[in-house]
Structures are given as C-alpha cells and as structure tokens.
Amino acid sequence: MSRATSRFHDSCSDPRPASRGRLHRIFVLFAAGAASLGLAACGGGEKPAGGPGGAGQGGDRPTPVTTIRIQPETFTDSVTAIGTVKARESVTVTAKVSEIVQTVHFDSGQQVRAGDPLITLSDRQQQASLAEAQAAADEAERLYRRQNELAQQQLIARAQLDNQRAARDAAQARVAQIRAQLADRVIRAPFSGVLGLRQVSPGALVTPGVAIATLDDLSRVYVDFPLPEAQLSRVAVGRRINGRATAYPDRAFDGAVTTIDARLDPATRAVQVRADFANGERMLRPGMLMTVEVPGVERQALLLPEIAVTQIGRDSFVFRAKPDDSVEQVKVTVAARRSGKVEIADGLAAGDRIVVEGTGKLRAGGKISEGGPAANGAASPAQPAASTKG
After folding, report:
1. What is the pLDDT of residues 74-90, one digit of tens each?
2. pLDDT at residue 104 above 90?
3. Quick one: which of 296, 298, 309 has its CA closest to 70?
4. Paired sense of beta strands 111-112 and 193-195, if any
5. How far apart are CA 119 and CA 94, in angstroms?
6. What is the pLDDT of residues 114-127, one digit of tens each?
7. SS3 string of 20-69?
8. Residue 141, SS3 per DSSP
9. Is 162 within 8 Å of 77 (Cβ atoms)?
C-alpha cells in the first residue's frame, strides 16, 4: 500500500517531458484550425464572376450582334498594281561641247516645238576658223579649174590634176566640219514638249553632261507596272484599264495596255506591262505614283463585309448562326477583296446567317441575339461582397 501511494505521488508531483510535448502539439493544431475558419469566413461572401458567354452568373445571357444572310451578288474582281508615270518622250537637254553660254532662248516651263533654239553658245573661234577654211576651199577650187583646163590641152600630167582635185575636196570637207561645229553651238529642242526649270544663265560655262533643262512630251504618258504570273491571262494588248494618282484621288484616268514584256522576272515571277494614258489636260506628270487597276470579268459570288472575317494566322474564319441562335466558327477561303468586301470561295453557302458585328466577344457554341454592339448591356463581373461576423 505504501509503494502504490508513493508511485502515485511521484507521478503527480513530477510531470514528464512527453506530456509537455503533447500539450504543445494540441495548441498548434487548435491555432491552425482557428485561422482556417477565419479565412473561410472572409472569403465566403464572394460571388463568381459572370457575363455574356461566361461561366458564372449570367453566363447564358446572349451576346448582341448584327447578322446578315449571305446571298450571291455580282462581283468584278480586279488586279491592282503600282507604277510610275513616264512621259511619252523625255530627255535632259545638255551641250555637246564645252563653251560659254551666249544667249538663252527659253523660260522655265515653256512649251516648245521640235527644232526651236534653246541655247546659243559662243562661236567666235569657230567663225574665224570657218572663214579661214572657206578661203582655202575657194583657192583650191580655182586651182583645180585652172589645172583642169591645162590637162585638157595636155599641158600638165593627169596625176597632177588628180592631186589638185583631192586637195579641193579636203578643203571643202574642212569647211563642212567647221559648219557642223557651229551647229553644235546652237542647242535645239529635239521634239515638241514642255521644258522644265532652266539651269543655266548667259555667261555660264557649260560642259558635256551638264543639265540645261528637261524636256517632256506630256501629250500622252505611259505607266510600267508589274503583273504576277498567275494574272497574266487577264491582260492583252489593247485591254482597257483604269488608273488613279494620289494627287487626284477622285479622278480616274482611262488607259490601254500597249506592250507586254517578252520575259518574266525569274526572281519575282512577274511581267512588266506598259499602259498608255491620254494626258491632254497635262494633269499627269513624270514621276507621279499611279495605282493601276486591271478589271476582270463579272460573275456571281458570295460576298461578306471584311469586318465579318477573323484572321487567325494564315486562316480566315467567320461565325455562322445556327437555328437555335448559337454560333459556330467556320473556316473559309477568301478569293478576292475589293471595296471593303471579300469574296468567299469555300466554306459557306447561300442563305447562311453570318455574324458581321460583335464578333469580338463570341466563342463557338455561344448564344447571340440580334441587336448590334450598341445594345450590348452585359453586366460587369460582380464585386466581392463584404464579409460579416456571425
């Protein structure tokens, strides 16, 4: 009895370390549970976000869109290319010799005719050389006539007469040479046209290659433009085309194909085509950028506004409405584009109902309602509710 009492007394008066460890673990677990309950209470008032087509509250609400039923329409596709306007005839007027400008016979922008003098260069040295050569030629001619008379009387040898004839011809050739040099001192217009800005003044020294002015025949102009190999069958000599210049955006110029190059560029697989345009009003000027349009043949095609087509990588898609007002995403093939519309070559059929506006929020399988983007009153995601203590 005394031993049992002694052991009980020892256990109550001296707790072991193992008991203290269990109490500590129980306290830690209790604190963690209390923290978890507190977090659950704070987040319990949040509501899942939702909207048109979303997964939360209001996820079944249809998206307002605008749709059309696609039907065949008359369509004329065209090939568009860019070229540069060039004058029918164009040249930069220069001198053939180095000389001082004596007289300028034109003003900038003047209309001239073929053969009109433009610049006269100083020719005093050539005039003196001409007088000397002419005198020598006249003397050679007199000697030849005298020796010819003597030869007929057999007073001189025939060979002496031949030598004098050669001397006379050489003197006359010298005169012709100097006259040609004098002609080079007067620079004339090679063809009729409009002169550009004058680049020289009297007293200036001009040399070969120095620009005096530009001369362009603007009665007609032409445009060279590249055409892809696949479109080569659309053009032929005489085919009518249209052209537009940036300077006159509201004006269309009528032209015709005059030449198709005999070769294609092996790097670009394109052929150069030349079109001729009448330019009686002198509106088109060399160097202007012109957009050339080669019209095709009219045909019936399925057309859609460009905004209805969504581009993902290299593929094109549209949203097609089903009878239950759900939509499906359909891959289509675009054949041509013109004036804000696209031709659908494959993927759709006549009578299909296509979403035109409001495609930004659509997903395959989502519901739609006819109303357009302006009627889109979808609510924004709900804000978290305030937490309360119970």
Report:
1. 888 788 899 999 999 99
2. yes
3. 309
4. antiparallel
5. 10
6. 999 999 999 888 88
7. HHHHHHHHHHHHHHHHHHHHHHHHCCCCCCCCCCCCCCCCCCCEEEEEEE
8. helix
9. no
Residues of the chain with CATH 2.40.30.170: 79-87+217-295
Architecture of 63-75+299-375 per CATH?
Beta Barrel (2.40)
CA distance 73 to 299: 8
CATH 2.40.420.20 residue window(s) in the chain: 63-75+299-375
Exposed e or buried b per residue across 324-343, where buried means at least 16 C-beta atoms within 10 angstroms of its C-beta: eeebebbebebebebeebbb
Taking the C-alpha atoms of residue 77 and residue 230, their distance in angstroms, rounded to an integer, is 14
Can you list the positions of beta strands (E) in 229-359?
240-245, 248-265, 270-278, 289-295, 299-305, 310-312, 315-321, 327-338, 341-346, 353-357
What pLDDT sits at residue 11? Answer: 45
Q: Are 365 and 327 in contact (CB under 8 A)?
A: yes
Domain spanning 79-87+217-295: which CATH class is it, in words?
A: mainly beta
pLDDT at 42: 43
Instruction: Please check the confidence at residue 170 and state whether its pLDDT lies above 60.
Output: yes
Q: Two tokens at 145? A: 């006539």
pLDDT digit string, tens, across residues 4-41: 444 444 444 444 444 455 555 555 455 555 555 444 44
